[in-house]
Amino acid sequence: MNYSDIMAEQNLSVIDETGVDESEVSTLTLNEVLQYEDQIIEDTAAVLGALNDKNCSYAEGYVKRQALYSCLTCIPEGKNDPEKRAGICLACSYHCHDGHELIELYTKRNFRCDCGNSKFDSFQCNILEDKDPLNENNIYNQNFQGTYCVCSRPYPDPEDSVSDEMIQCIVCEDWYHTRHLNISLPVNSFVEMACFNCVGDHQFLLHYKEASVEESEPCVSVDNEEDIAVSDDQCHQESSENKEEILLENIDPLQMENDMDGECKKPKTTSHVSTLFWSDISWRNRLCKCDICLEMYEDENVLYLIDSEDPVQIYEEKGKAKTQEVIENQDRDFLSSMNRVQLMETIAGYNELKTGLADFFKDFAEKRKVIKEEDVREFFEEMQAKKKRRTEMPYFCH
């Protein structure tokens, strides 16, 4: 149960019963604890909510985006040998590799589950045995061996004392420490990032640098315009006046318009190679789709950038929506399975618990006392005793 609504305005502190003097204990408000719990649940739903945890995803082919895992128990060589790297789907992590040493890889694009193929020697998938020896189109970066960023270190890193978040590049899908991106983080919020290595490899991205995402000066420069993958003399550039008329907020991020009129819509480029940030996934809508640019995307293996289902944000929204749908269906099925008496008892029990918790928290808030483990235990023991007295009460007096 989520108790956020009950004590939304309470400002309480919670600690475990450790025997430590209360004045020496660093406490959190109950709201902070509940918000942290809710965030974990929401993050899990976003990453795993859209997936099937019972059926191996191999049958779906190269899935556009899914959560993946690397099993070091089955393939310990994968830590050092790039040829041994392998990835498994969510269902296989549950039904084939339960209890194994797994590396959580978050999500990867266009990947087919490797569980039980030739990389696993004699190990077979418990869900689906008939699989090709190898998935030739899978891409395995260093994350599959448990290292990340240009520093090639694990996360969390036991030898790194610096507190630093990591951000995933939308191209190579590696994760980078913010301090290793060779640029300061944007002043404004952002949802997508392309690392400086990928921008250097795919310099057409420089044409779509967002002016709305303020960042520090890049540290690497390109010698001349001819270094750009598709030079300006190959196709007509959009005028700066028209470029300014494009309003990000008016572009539907789910609608990738396909301009196949032969005219290149690519804006003029900047001359600096650096990590790029975008404030919204709708920047992808502006990617030119003339014949020349489409051929370039294919040659550079980045056609996914114009796929409306590729962004992680879209994937996570689907996961959250599906999780909410499952919860609602489960609640409905649970309630419909009860008879009228059971339903009324359940509702009464919920209301009693809600009222009891509200009074319990209010008392501690008014006295500005810290809630200890023994207080919570005592509360639920009292609630259980009330329930027992109620259920043992005779219906008729003799």
TrEMBL record:
Signal peptide, first to last residue: none
Sorted UniProt keywords: Metal-binding, Zinc, Zinc-finger
Zinc finger (UBR-type): 54-130
Gene3D superfamilies tied to this protein: Zinc/RING finger domain, C3HC4 (zinc finger)
Entry GO terms, CC: cytoplasm
GO molecular function terms listed in the Swiss-Prot or TrEMBL record: ubiquitin protein ligase activity; zinc ion binding
Annotated ranges, domain UBR-type: 54-130
Name of this chain's protein: UBR-type domain-containing protein
